[in-house]
Design brief:
This protein is α+β, with helices and mostly antiparallel strands. Helices cover 39% and strands 18% of the residues.
Length: 93
């Protein structure tokens, strides 16, 4: 995939929509992809960019249990603002 500059009008509109979505409360990347009508991979690239710019942070973690993984899956929950990231939860056996 070519490098994204996040400067084109469509990218700026998507960033604005992400910020509006995050004002409603913490969201995972699936929620952000749905809100911006994009794929999860594209949404993740936007979140990486916004974290590098310190416009969003990880507010918490979404823990999902699964039968195929003993400890399930852990997904970040993003929120607007330049705050410290929530620590990754420790998995207890």
């Amino acid at each position: 995939m070519p490098a994204m500059t996040f400067r084109r009008p469509v990218a700026l509109a998507r960033i604005k929509r992400i910020e509006q979505t995050l004002r409603e409360g913490p969201k995972n990347v699936d929620d952000i992809a749905t809100a911006t009508f994009s794929s999860i991979a594209v949404a993740q690239r936007y979140m990486t960019h916004l974290r590098q710019q310190r416009r969003v942070h990880i507010a918490g973690w979404d823990l999902r249990m699964s039968l195929d993984r003993p400890f399930g899956y852990v997904f970040p929950l993003y929120a607007a603002g330049d705050l410290p990231d929530a620590p990754l939860p420790t998995l207890k056996q």
